[in-house]
Amino acid sequence: MGDDLGDEWWQHEDACESEEETEQEKQPTEKTKTETKPEKRKRITEKTVKAKKKKSEQTECVTAQKKETEDEKSTKPKKKRKKKKTITEVLATSEPKPGCPADLQNLVTQYFSDKRSVIEQEELKLQDSCFLSSNDLTHSLSSYLKQVCPKWAKIQKQHTGKSSVVLLIVCSSALRAIELIKQLTTFKGEAKAVKLFAKHIKIEEQVKLLQKGVTHIGVGTPGRISALIEKEGLNLQALKYVVLDWNWRDQKLRRMVDIPEIKLDFMKLLENGILNGCKDDKVKIGLF
Predict the structure, then answer these.
(1) What pTM does this model have?
(2) d(CA 222, CA 233)
(3) How many whole angstroms separate alpha carbon 262 and alpha carbon 173?
(4) By CB distance 3.0 to 4.6 Å, which of 66, 91, 176, 263 could disulfide with 253?
């Protein structure tokens, strides 16, 4: 009966035991594999946390540096820009100087420096003989004209032409022109003076007035005088003296040539025949 069983029974028992041992060995290895996965995740998370900390520390350093630079800028005193002084501020602290022929010559050269060629600029230069003696700020208009035009009585009698004047006084405004006409009483004698400005007077009325009778003295603004010359209401054939109200200043302490609009009209007036008359030795300029 025992022989019929075939293989020995103890061999089967050994095989079963070995299989059980191998299964037991496999189970802990699988556990180790599962245990290593969370350890890797922990390492990755720790690295990301460290990197974030570094970035935050760098940003904090940069912000701290910016704050320091801003604080330094705020603590540094700001440089104040120097404002350019106006004409009134300069003249309020300094005494006014009387004008001279060189002042007019410099004004002419500066104005035409970018408008004329070098040769034309040289032609614009006036000789000393073209100028009368300048006012030294001690004269009134009548006393200055008596000094400059000692033979006025004879000159005014010889003048008989219409639409022309012998003496032309150029000033900055209508009010100033009226003041100057009042100051002429002791000088003009029997001579007739006419207002040549635009305020409340139409240019057509002034043309008719000049055509009616003989006028000896014209007092006005450069804009209206040049407009009358262009319209042939006033000719310069009999003109001998041009007196510029150079030294007078308005409430803002500006001279006639310091006001841009009047300066342009004045330079236009010089171009309209006065400079040519000076070169031909027919007209003389005086700075009052």
Answers:
(1) 0.68
(2) 14
(3) 9
(4) 91
